[in-house]
Amino acid sequence: MVLFTAISPRFPSKANQIGLETIVIAGASLLLALSAKISVPFYPVPLTLQTLTVIGLGLALGSWRGAAAVLLYLGEGSIGLPVFAGTPEKGIGLVYMMGPTGGYLIGYVIAALASGLLAQRGWDRHPAKAMLAALLSSALIYVPGLIWLGIVIGFDKPVLQYGLYPFILGDVTKALLAAITFPAIWKALQARLGL
Q1: With contact defined as beta carbons under 8 Å apart, do 65 and 58 qualify?
Q2: Of 4, 92, 124, 156, which residue has the fewest beta carbons closer than 10 angstroms?
Q3: What is the rounded distance in angstroms from the CA atom of residue 27 to the CA atom of residue 24?
Q4: Per residue in 56-67, is it b (16+ CB within 10 Å) or e — as a string?
Q5: CB atoms within 10 A of CB 9
Q6: What CATH number is given to the structural domain containing 93?
Q7: What are 146-185's pLDDT values in tens digits?
Q8: How many Å apart are CA 156 and CA 3, to the nearest integer?
C-alpha cells in the first residue's frame, strides 16, 4: 500500500476521489518541476533532486499516479514550459527533449512505474527494501538514457563516462535518502491515522 492509498479513503465519493487524484497528480508534476531546478553541490557532478523526486512519486503515489505525474511534467515541458533542468538556458520544449537528456526523461516514467509497483508490494516500508527499490528504479532511468545519449552523441564517444559514471555516487546517496525517508513517513502516518 502506498501513501496515497492510505490517505484516499478519507475522500469516499467518486467525484471527491477523482478531484483528489487530479490535484495530487498536478501537484506532483509541479514538485517534479521544482526539483529539476534544485542543484546541490556534490562530487563529481552536482546532484539534482529530480531523480529522487521521480522515484519518491512512485513510492508515495503508486505506479499509475506516479507515472501520470511524470507524464504531465513531460507534457508541460513539451509545450515549452521551462520545467526541465537547465531550461530555458539550454532550450525548451521538444527541442530540449530531443537533446542528449531526452532518454533520461523517458526513463523517469519507467522509474516512477517501477518504484510504484515495488511500493504497492510493501517495499517502501522497510529501509533495506526502500533503498533497493530506489536503486533498481534509478538503474531503469539509465537504460533509455544511455541508449538515447549514444544515438545523439554517437556510440564512438565514451557514453558511460558522460552519462553514467559521474552519477552513481549521487544515485546511491538518493537511494539512502529514500530508505530513510519513506519508512519514516509510513511509521508517522500509521501512528497518526491508526493504520
Answers
A1: no
A2: 156
A3: 5
A4: bbbbbbbbbbbb
A5: 9
A6: 1.10.1760.20
A7: 999 999 999 999 999 999 999 999 989 988 888 888 888 8
A8: 44
SS (H, E, C) the chain: CCHHHHHHHHCCCHHHHHHHHHHHHHHHHHHHHHHHCCEECCCCCCEECHHHHHHHHHHHHCHHHHHHHHHHHHHHHHCCCCCCCCCCCCCCHHHHHCCCCHHHHHHHHHHHHHHHHHHHCCHHHCHHHHHHHHHHHHHHHHHHHHHHHHHHHCCCCCHHHHHCHHHHHHHHHHHHHHHHHHHHHHHHHHHHHCC
Distance CA 48, CA 42 (A): 9
At residue 64, what is the residue type? W
Look up the domain containing 144 and give its range: 3-193
Spatial distance between the Cα atoms of 93 and 115, rounded to a whole number of angstroms:
27
* End-to-end alpha carbon distance in the chain: 11
Q: Which amino acid is at 24?
A: V
Q: How many structural domains comprise the chain?
A: 1
Q: What is the pLDDT of residues 61-70, one digit of tens each?
A: 999 999 999 9
